[in-house]
Specification:
It comes from Christiangramia oceanisediminis. The protein is mainly beta. 15% of the residues lie in helices and 39% in strands. The longest helix is centred in the N-terminal third of the chain and has 24 residues, at 2-25. The two termini are 39 Å apart.
Length: 517
């Protein structure tokens, strides 16, 4: 028994030392192989890739929404507006006797980061995140007769209703009257704000909040529309209320500045329209006599749990749009155009030649790595800010590929450092100019060559939070039903060398590093 144990231990030690010896000679497999002691070889497979314009993408009931105007140096002007319901925070509210509005405030938090204070008072200071552009935009708010369903009447109310980014013309056809609010030059502020919340009796509580999209709305409209409806059926429940006041249209438009676009934390529970009012109450005074006193009250119309969606307006420059539309799915492209939001994507067929695929399947290869390397077309960027990551998915089944699922670098707390094996962050030169993106498809390609996975087309988009695996529907594209939801959370765009690039060294190819047994 002891002899058997000694033999087992000796065998294990030999295996360990053999592994260590091999590991000393091993070189990581990447875009370049300097030393190749393990006989790792490279083959390059010609792919087929082309751009696809996205004109209509589902945007309803997201957590975050863009508002404002973005001027992109490649893709032109893009304007984001919001259509939203209002939700009663309490059904059949009691505003007291003779209620009169003092003020009405709309609040939707920004994304912000606390920074070290430089003020003498030591007050908390903030830096705004997800604000793009240094200009401003024209902001207006309208009441509309457009009703936002939760369930789709065309499916006999069995499926969730979808609303799309290209539906602004329908909204504008349903605008009721003049705008409720107009600001010709709205610009986000990083200043925190202070609220005076009604406390007990006639005393207000002072509460400080992080920066937010904050508007003072007219009291006359809300006095008539809400306060004066106390005790009527329209405030009895939210079903009645959403038929009575169907939706608000928060509209952004270009003004004379370069514009600004802001990502709003719409699902934050502080997203609401607050009505501050006074009312009367009969009370017994110290002498035992009844007297009328004036008290303060507050009532909220919630936004954070309301049906809502983004609309987008704006077109790509005509020559750029024509180039995208002229790209032939069967012949490849010189340049590939990527733009997030209601923008454009890239479709890649990694094995367009069935004969080549069958030849590869006949080899006895161990696939060490397979990747798609997208080189940045620097001459086409025109100074555009470059996205840090690309995202690849199965465009035919609307699912992530195996390399995304198996990536061990998942970082839930910091998406910018997550899934970096699958989607390598943008490689930059010493001047911080982008050089290339790498998307690893090792498991996906190996599975195709084994015959376990079909050779499907893959979609490439610009992601925001790469940890978000959900998808959003699109309309009007024959071969695309959905795109990754995270592409709606940033306004970036770029241009990449395609598989027919004039620069042959930067052409998009599938690179397979293998060991031939």
């Amino acid at each position: 028994m002891k002899l058997n144990r000694l033999l087992q231990m000796a065998t294990a030690l030999v295996a360990v030392f053999a592994f260590v010896g091999c590991d000393e000679d091993y070189t990581d497999i990447g875009g370049e192989i300097i030393n190749n002691p393990t006989d790792v070889e490279l083959t390059e497979v010609e792919v087929n890739a082309y751009s696809q314009k996205i004109n209509s993408i589902q945007t309803n009931n997201l957590n975050n929404y863009f508002l404002g105007v973005n001027q992109h140096p490649i893709y032109g002007s893009n304007t984001a507006s919001i259509v939203t319901q209002l939700v009663l925070s309490q059904a059949d509210p009691d505003f007291g006797d003779n209620p009169v509005l003092d003020s009405v405030v709309m609040t939707i938090p920004y994304f912000s980061t606390e920074i070290e204070s430089t003020s003498e008072e030591g007050e908390i200071e903030y830096k705004l995140d997800s604000v793009f552009g240094e200009g401003s935009f024209r902001l207006s708010i309208y009441e509309t007769g457009f009703f936002l369903n939760t369930l789709d009447p065309d499916s006999n109310f069995e499926n969730a209703q979808r609303y799309y980014s290209d539906q602004q013309p329908q909204i504008e056809q349903n605008i009721l009257g003049s705008p409720i609010f107009v600001n010709e030059n709205f610009k986000a502020s990083a200043a925190r704000y202070v609220n005076f919340e009604p406390g007990d009796g006639e005393v207000n509580d002072t509460v400080a909040y992080e920066p937010a999209f904050r508007l003072k709305l007219p009291t006359d409209y809300f006095q008539q529309k809400i306060i004066d409806q106390q005790g009527t059926d329209v405030l009895l429940n939210n079903g009645n209320f959403t038929q009575y006041l169907r939706s608000f249209f928060i509209k952004a438009e270009q003004n004379s500045t370069e514009g600004q676009q802001i990502l709003l934390d719409y699902a934050n529970e502080n997203s609401m329209i607050s009505l501050y009012y006074t009312y009367e109450e009969e009370r017994e005074n110290d002498e035992g006599n009844m007297e009328t006193v004036s008290l303060r009250g507050k009532y909220d119309l919630n936004l954070f749990n309301a049906n809502r969606f983004n609309t987008y307006t704006g077109e790509f420059p005509g020559d750029l749009l024509a180039e995208i539309e002229d790209q032939d799915p069967g012949s490849g492209s010189e340049n590939l155009y990527l733009k997030s939001q209601e923008g454009s994507m890239v479709i890649v067929d990694i094995f367009p030649d069935e004969t080549v695929l069958e030849q590869l399947r006949g080899n006895n290869w161990l696939i060490n790595e397979a990747n798609l390397t997208f080189y940045v077309a620097r001459d086409e960027l025109n100074g555009a800010e470059e996205p840090e990551r690309l995202y690849l998915y199965n465009v035919e089944n609307n699912t992530v590929i195996a390399d995304y699922q198996l990536d061990p670098s998942l970082n839930e707390s910091d998406p910018s450092q997550s899934k970096t094996t699958f989607s390598v962050p943008l490689e930059r030169d010493e001047d911080e100019n982008g050089i290339l993106y790498k998307l690893r498809v090792t498991s996906h390609v190996a599975s195709i060559l084994r015959g376990d996975t079909e050779n499907v087309k893959l979609g490439v988009v610009i992601p925001g939070n790469i940890n978000t695996p959900n998808f959003s529907a699109v309309r009007g594209i024959e071969e695309v039903e959905r795109v990754p939801l995270s592409t709606l959370s940033i306004p970036y765009g770029t241009v990449l060398h395609g598989d027919e690039s004039a620069d042959e060294e930067k052409r998009l190819k599938l690179r397979i590093y293998y060991t031939d047994y």
